[in-house]
Amino acid sequence: MTKAQHSLGYRPLPPFLRNLREEAGLTQRQLGLALHKPQSWVYNCETGNRRVDVAEFIAWCRPCGVEPQKAFKRFLDILG
To answer: Where does residue 7 rank: exposed (0-12), middle (13-18), buried (19+ CB within 10 A)?
Structure first.
């Protein structure tokens, strides 16, 4: 059985999260500090080693300067 974070529907999310962070000009360390998480947590989210839930998605968007609703719409547009 495939783990949820490896499902086809989840695969676009890790690079999307990385893109949000990079567009904001943040390093993994800086985002981790803003989220009160270690850099390794950010790395694991961006590489798909760790699944991100909705609350974490919302928290991720804020330090990146993106409204969660707009980010979610962008992500849905990627999915088609």
So the answer is: exposed
